[in-house]
Amino acid sequence: MAGKGEGPAIGIDLGTTYSCVGVWQHDRIEIIANDQGNRTTPSYVAFTDSERLIGDAAKNQVAMNPINTVFDAKRLIGRRFSDASVQSDMKLWPFKIIPGPADKPMIVVSYKGEEKQFAAEEISSMVLIKMREIAEAYLGVTIKNDVVTVPAYFNDSQRQATKDAGVIAGLNATSVGEKNYFRGESYCWRHPSWW
């Protein structure tokens, strides 16, 4: 439940390649379009000499700035640098990954002329902030509470890292749950006679 002075809780599908945000209103879930009119937003974050870009703006410039454009951060979240999946995925990405403290994979980019390192949670938090901003622009209220979906195969470390991304983004992650669970819950809300 949203606290006093806060807007409704939003639902965010933090995807590997695209993310979307929705809100329950008018007795249904409404998926909110971004400033480009799209109901999905690329899960991309780009760093330049002058700014940070998120979503469509980041994806649109990837060909000109590949080593500083981060995508697929969800593949790193809650994992270790030494994990076989991380080592395999690194070969496909133009951006640099190095081992950080406790074997955490760190993404290395150049931002405003300086080398910066970000954890996957930090990159994901930037996407979550963008999704919150999309919802706030549409609803005209401040949003603090959210529910974020995660794949059923996520382990506890990946779920916690996703919650941490929400905290970094300034959101009160009321729940981190599996997509299929939320789909079922949505069906029950839309069809109360079913239960």
From TrEMBL:
It comes from the Eukaryota. Transmembrane segments: none annotated. InterPro entries: ATPase_NBD, Heat_shock_70_CS, Hsp_70_fam. Keywords: ATP-binding, Nucleotide-binding. One of its GO terms (molecular function) is ATP-dependent protein folding chaperone. Gene3D superfamilies: 3.30.420.40. PANTHER family: HEAT SHOCK PROTEIN 70KDA. This is BnaC02g31440D protein. It comes from Brassica napus.
